[in-house]
Protein: U6 snrna-associated sm-like protein
Organism: Trypanosoma vivax
Amino acid sequence: MATLDMEKLLHKRAMCFTVFGEAHNGLLQAVDNNFNTVLLMGHGAGVDQAAKEEGELCFVRGESVMYVGFDDDAAGASGGSSES
């Protein structure tokens, strides 16, 4: 089974989708084994102006997370998936 080291994706642009149909954009600050997710708001498309100004943190409880998506362009630009 393939695994993904989420630590390598910290501080990358991400979008967290929930079972409630919500989508939260920001920089991934933390994620644990239960998919509890913390995003720094104000980074990414669709973020409201107040969040951009404040740099708010958004906590999403893992039991409501459907998946966390990452911007492939951002990962590629920083060399995110190169193997040696």
Observations:
- Residues 75-84 have pLDDT under 50 and may be disordered.
- The longest helix spans residues 49-54.
- The first strand starts at residue 13 and ends at 18.
